[in-house]
Amino acid sequence: MTALLELNDVSARYGPVQALRGVTLEVPEGQVVAVLGANGAGKTTTLRAVSGTVRRTGSITFAGMPLKGGPEAVAKAGIAHVPEGRGTFTELSVVDNLKLGAYTRRERNLRGDIERVSEWFPWIPERADQTAGTLSGGEQQMLALARALMAKPRLLMLDEPSLGLAPMIVREIFRIVRELNERDGLTVLVVEQDARIALDTASTAYVLEVGKVAVEGPSADLRENESVRRSYLGY
Amino acid sequence: MADFMQQVVAGLASGSIYASLALALVLIHRATGVINFAQGEMATLSTYLAWTLTTNHGWSYWPAFAVTLALSFAGGAAVHQGIIRPNEKGSVLRVVIVTIGLLLLINGAVTWIWSGEVRAVQSPFPTRTIEIGGVAISIQDIGTIGVVVGTMVLLWFLFQRTKIGLAMRAASVNPAEARLVGVRVTWMLSLGWGLAAMLGAISGMLAAPSVFLDPNLMAAILIYAFAAAVLGGIDSPVGAIVGGLTLGVGLNLLGTYVDFVGADLRLPGALFVILVVLLVRPSGIFGHRAVKRV
After folding, report:
1. Contact flag A81-B180 (C-beta cutoff 8 Å)
2. What is the pTM of this model?
3. Which of A213, B135, B175, B231 has the most CB atoms within 10 Å of its CB?
4. A86: nearest CA partner in chain B
């Protein structure tokens, strides 16, 4: 089976700080892959390297083609990136946020797409005209997810969807991600500090330490791994 | 009473000229985060272009108006791509200073090309007045208001009802996020600069018939536009329009009914408005208070 997304020896730096030191990972089509690690391990930078928002070296292939250019080109190629800290346009309305999600698509049936996405988030239609910034944190995270789905992406990249949210809402978001994967075959690359819920959702996971892949393997194996358990699962 | 209404309409006409330039300032401020001090001079240059087309090349008014708008749009976008964008990476102050440099450059160029001579500009509207309910209203005032209202309606449609307008709003409120959904942010910002230059051109072309054309045509109008934008809220397009109209009517009534103000104290009046708003309510009537997330 070929991978939808492949990173080969990818490095990136912010000025003098080397954030990634030769990361190699792959995301097979139709699977959920998790990237775990402590703060500053390079999780967010891994996603930013893919979406072209940080300068990087090494090669990235998406659907068999080298991935080049800035975030506009990456979005157009079919990768939807939900960045850390609720990727919404807080000053725009909910419906405008959704419309922007479909920005790169040529064939557009906005009404139909909004209906499709609202199946996952039934509260959206009645709050369509509300400014996104007035939503609760959990709703904003869901809106960011909904907006990403508007693009009908081939790959969904989620950066710390659990950040600052109540456990119940985190469970709800991961339930939706799991269902999107099982029902629609959506491929997902998720970066997460909450290792437990990430391992429950993903089939494969990578653990980053100081910009390098320290451990990788099927989620079930990682859950049994002594050092992963102690460092990230806490038992 | 008839006299009062007449002054209100005249105030609305000058107010819509201020509103148009104020809206240009607001568009740039939203997109680039700076005040474009060259906005007035860019408008003066546009007005000279229109004047040259009608006076030297025998064009009739409205074709010259349309071509000037197109050229202004292209010029505004070119200024962004060629001059502003290379300096955007630096501090805000750097861009501000670049716009001040541009102000001096355009002012010098206009004086060099067209000389400092004061010229009369024909109005596209008849100078007659019509009577509505006992109030004599100049057709030029109605025409001025009409052109600005029409422009605002078109802009509203562009920003609220089209895909590209939504992309422009997204690019100005959150550029990083906009790039992630595939919006070409720099192009959108250039479009914004182009639209602002067009608004300035409209303001200049409508102002010229009543105040005559010289290289400093827009100097005072730029101050009024600043006052309007500050009054309405520097980040609010609706605020710029309301601010412009309020200022136009207010200053006109003040000049007419308060003896010592007359025509001479109108400009200080605008500066006074800027001062008071910045002291009392810096976000203006419709603006958002800048909130920093910690």
Report:
1. yes
2. 0.91
3. B231
4. B177
